[in-house]
Amino acid sequence: LEGLCFFLQLSTCPEHLLVRFCGWLLALTPDLSYTSAAVLAEQLFLKRVLSLTQPPSRHLMAALASFCSKYSQPFCRVLVAAVLREPGEGAEQTKLVCELVEECLEPDCVRLVLSQVLELPLSEKLLPVVQAVLGQQEVLPPELFDLLVLTLCRQAPAFAMSLNYAKLVTAMLTMYPSQVS
């Protein structure tokens, strides 16, 4: 599949054609396997998303949203994980992940994104993603919630001057007052 994607130059095809291609993928029966969907998520989107220096085009957002609608697990495991691990600020990538969390991902994938964030050292770049997850007002599993609270407590000194950290802690206290002591 990687060879076919390379041969078809899918990683560099125009974004309006990417939307069409994703539409065809959604119409396939039976559905793609997890592995095939993961390969396609990487081949179709990873290079484009990691190279963003300005907000994504409406075509790219439409393609991402349509692919996410059917193959969100492999999408999160490949693309979102790579964006979260990418060093540096990555402001456009972070905004994109937040937008996907807020508008496209199902609750199980929103929790997956949070668990991926909590596997990494917390940074300013990741705080808006956690905020977006909390904004979905999904009930977090106790173990994930406890890990989030523990991570935020441990990282507090590093974020003493961070407005994003303050917003996140305020959101936690507002949404989960009985669980946070």
From TrEMBL:
Transmembrane segments: none
Cross-referenced Pfam families: FA_FANCE (PF11510)
Fanconi Anaemia group E protein C-terminal domain segment(s): 3-179
GO-annotated cellular components: Fanconi anaemia nuclear complex
Domain of life: Eukaryota
Single GO biological process annotation from the record: interstrand cross-link repair
Alphabetical list of InterPro entries matching this protein: FANCE, Fanconi_anaemia_gr_E_prot_C
Name of the featured protein: FANCE protein
Species for this entry: Burhinus bistriatus
Organism classification: Eukaryota, Metazoa, Chordata, Craniata, Vertebrata
Protein encoded by which gene: Fance
